[in-house]
UniProtKB/TrEMBL annotation:
It holds the Pfam family SPW. The keyword Aminoacyl-tRNA synthetase does not apply. The chain crosses the membrane at residues 20-39, 45-63, 72-91, 97-116. This is SPW repeat-containing integral membrane domain-containing protein. Keywords: Membrane, Transmembrane, Transmembrane helix. It comes from Ktedonosporobacter rubrisoli. Residues 16-111 form the SPW repeat-containing integral membrane domain.
Amino acid sequence: MLNLRENMVAAPWARWQNWADVVLGIILFISPWYTATWGNGTSSWNAWILGVVIVLVSLWALATPESPIPQWINTILGIWVFISPWVLNYTRLAGEAWSAWIIGALTIIFSAWVALQMQSPRRATVT
């Protein structure tokens, strides 16, 4: 029996986790409007900027599925989104804070999932 590393590189534009991150970035971008917090500059600008950056990095990840770099960048962005209500002091804005916590956590999960899959490929047994 011969153990070979299975190729974990997905086809371009094929990873559902990256598409989920695109959707999460869009939701983050529009969150100041659906939570009616657009008047708070700090939380709104954070959501607008991070939403656009997450979408762009996710599209980069979809276009270059062999590179773990955009996965790790999105993981870091997700961490920032998650902690931003405390760091930028907008936890009193419940809708925006919960949006940040949920979107941040999901972005971390999806991006780290793919990055870790890429680092530890499965082994296939060939007879």
